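Reading is simple: each integer encodes one residue's backbone shape. The lines below illustrate:
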Amino acid sequence: MAGKKVVVGMSGGVDSSVAACLLQRAGYEVIGVTMQTWQEEESAAVEENGGCCGLDAVEDARRVAQILGIPHYVMNFKGEFKKWVIDYFTEEYRKGRTPNPCIACNRHVKWEALLKRSLDLGADYIATGHYARIRLLENGRYAAASAVSEGKDQTYALYNLTQHQLAHTLMPVGDYDKEEIRQIAVQAGLPIAHKPDSQEICFVPDKDYAGFIDRELQKPVPPGDFVDMEGNVIGRHRGITHYTIGQRKGLGLAMGHPVFVAAIRPETNQVVIGESADIFSYELRCSHLNRMACEEFEENMEVTAKIRYNHTGAVCRIHRISQDEAYCRFEEPQRAITPGQAVVFYGDGGLVLGGGTIEEAL
């Protein structure tokens, strides 16, 4: 769009690079920005999975910007990332919950912080390489909607964006599938056309979440008791940060049959072990609600809800408790409803109605 300026968050990956390319072709004045978040400049993580936070990512983004002929800048968001992502991640695990750092990063860093700086610089929009689409609805509200590529859809991690943020956001990649995106990159001569997708949490590349948390807290999380559903001690655990609801592997319990983490009790430092049936629930309570496509969730409103990123979605009904809390009852019991994760509500056509943070399974 001639005359409109857009800042593209360029991670050095193929998706954000093609987003910049597509917007440039559409006539926007494109500026590339790579966000420095957690990494130390002298010790970037090895990027075997195409990670988005290390110095190799900065160099890849810079090379793409040079090929496209657009300006590229590196902006320091380490303070915001520490506060909204790392501290939140650590505290949630310490409380026996399972956080979703990507949702927190999207809401508070990739959008709130980047958008503010971009608007201050005179930009009209920010853009990312997320597989999602943004719709302006007849009711005047903006909402995220599922991408063309169902298998790559990232709307679950975007449910918490505000109306202001959505109104100033472009997501051109959502209209394509992954192979089309890679082909566009090849045709544009971009060197990252076949770069692998990022797979893990960027600031814990070795996947050792508990070890990361111990280092952040500067002391190890103490071990405690495994207990059964009746409260009987059946073993010792390594610290509650090693576990999440529904976990079966890595428990170190010789029970003679598969058992699962059914609950985590930080107040007593206990991890509750149960059978498969013990980790299924019909209901959940959620808080910190964000309404996206609608101003209010109607009482007994039927929606499709996802309770984790890779959940296929299930029909449930929403019952309001207050402006900020709701119960959700599913038609079928759902496995491992996990406090700290998000529940995201979808309407027709993959439209994101909103969502909230899961507080408990009921």
About this structure: The first helix runs from residue 14 to 25. Residues 41-51 have pLDDT under 50 and may be disordered.
